[in-house]
Amino acid sequence: MASEPRVELTPAAADLVRRLRAVHGPLMFHQSGGCCDGSAPMCYPAGEFRTGGSDVLLADLAVDDVAETVPFWMSVSQYERWSHTRLIVDVVEGRGSGFSLEAPEGVRFLIRSRVLRPATPYAPSAPDPGPPVSDDTH
Question: Max Cα separation, the chain?
Fold first, then answer.
């Protein structure tokens, strides 16, 4: 059984990625966990945001009708806090950071999350036999 992806896009976010890709070329995401809009995923042209030893690559997102995958990076310090979550990139109306490519569109990317459960093998339990039955017919 395959493990759950660490990062995924909602259909609305995937649509926005396709539109941004058509205008800006290959894209990337970075989630810093900083203050203000730094806690939102930022979308940049691929390679415009320099990543390094303080970042971790969480996913290469495959988006229908986009030729290349879209890498999703996160700062190590943010990852340490969110390592137990599945990140769901969504898009909502409203203005986000001026640094992220979607800002002029009047929308912004945001993260929804779900706690990842540790994988546990399926082990059916034996049915409860109920209370002991006495045979008083003798």
Answer: 88
Residue 118 confidence (pLDDT): 62
Encoding tokens for residue 17? 């990625």
DSSP string, 52-110: -TTEEEEEEE--TT-SS-EEEEEEHHHHHHHTTEEEEEEEEES---TTSTTGGGTEEEE
* Binned average pLDDT, 10 residues per bin, the chain of 138 residues: 77 98 97 67 94 93 97 91 90 82 92 74 39 45
Q: What is the predicted pLDDT for the residue at 136? A: 47
**Sheet of 107-115: strands edge to edge?**
7-9, 85-93, 107-115
Q: What is the pLDDT of residue 68?
A: 97
In the numeric block, which tokens belong to residue 108?
A: 């912004």
Residue with tokens 């995923």: 41
Q: Distance between CA 7 and CA 91 in Å, rounded?
A: 14
Structural tokens at position 109: 């990317």
- Alpha-carbon dihedral angle through residues 118, 89, 18, 107, given to the nearest 10 degrees: 180
